[in-house]
Amino acid sequence: MKFTASVLDHIIDSLAPYSLACSWDNVGFQVGRSDRNIAAVLCALEITPAIIREAVRKKADAIISHHPLIFHPVLRITDSAVTGQLVTDIILSGLCLFVAHTNLDKSPCGTNHALAKLIGLANLRFIQPEPVQIGKPQYGMGYVGKLPKTITIKRFIEEVKRCLRVSHVQVIGDVKGRVRRVAVLAGSGNEAIKGMDMSLADVLLTGEMSHHAALEAKILGMTVICAGHYATEAVGMKYFAGFLRRHKGIQEAGVKILEAKCQSPPYEYV
Ligand SMILES: [Zn+2]
To answer: Is 90 helix (H, G, I), strand (E, B) or coil?
Structure first.
């Protein structure tokens, strides 16, 4: 059987069902022809000119991006705006583009599971489980898990910095206490505090929070560690690449699964 973009689309959907995506999100097959032959796939956090060049250099036929390139309605596809420029470059490079965003966040093959495992959490439970469907795996947003032993929050912060390879984190709330139960939410944590039962965890580890969400978290007495949107999600695409590589259909077709190297956070500390 020919391994086409359409076959890859089905495989992504089987690992991180598109139907799980949040209502405001835009996931799935975004750019390209469904009958395009796929021999190599590049997994990246997001689409940039450097990622498109890397895909071309590595002879990839498709890119799977965590962040949606096409998110808001697009009225024209020209180089007059960044999205149009990137879509044009993807098409001119003969590439296909797939997006696995909040559907991947809610899948055990994705961002939140990767982050929970990276910091050594066990006994994982979803913060917000999806309704269970008989015979289907359990999905949900974010995890709560336990560290191997109780440690001080200060020590935990140092562990997070080491595991995520970041020099700084932002902290909201009290850092004097101790931590055993940790909630993780890769990327933006703004939505997490809405309706989240923080008695489930001593600390929430997330990527970033807006000023107002941070203020709210502080008033609610939460301790939140923001380790960076990029740092908390980059590991997720590597993790997903592993699931794709072990997938029977991909192995049988000999499709190469590549991990993006030319990516970095858009800002840095000076
Ligand atoms: Zn993100």
So the answer is: helix
The overall average pLDDT reported for the chain is 94
Distance, in Å, from the CA atom of 216 to the CA atom of 192, rounded to the nearest integer, reads 11
Please report which confidence band the pLDDT of residue 211 belongs to, taking 50, 70 and 90 as the band edges: very high
Report how far ligand 1's centroid is from the alpha carbon of 5 (Å): 24
pLDDT digits (tens, 9 = 90+) for 37-53: 999 999 999 999 999 99
The CA 127 to ligand 1 mean position distance, Å, reads 18
Please, how many CA atoms are within 13 Å of residue 68, restricted to the half-sphere of its CB?
Answer: 19
The C-alpha atoms of residue 264 and residue 228 are separated, in whole angstroms, by 11
DSSP three-state, residue 178: strand
How many A from CA of 136 to the centre of ligand 1? 26
The residues facing 126 across adjacent strands are: 143
Q: What's the chain's length in residues?
A: 270
State in Å: Cα 251 to ligand 1 middle.
Answer: 28
Which of 35-49, 132-146, 255-269 is predicted least confidently?
132-146
Domains and CATH numbers, the chain: 5-101+235-259 (3.40.1390.30), 111-227 (3.40.1390.30)
Which residues are within 5 Å of ligand 1 (an ion), measured at CB? 187, 233
Residue 77 corresponds to which tokens in the numbers above?
Answer: 């596809």
Q: In 10 A of CB 270, how many CB atoms?
A: 3
Q: Rg of the chain's alpha carbons, rounded to an integer?
A: 19
Q: Measure the CA–CA gap between 87 and 95, rounded to whole angstroms.
A: 10
Q: What is the DSSP string of 67-88?
A: S-SS-SPPS--STTSHHHHHHH
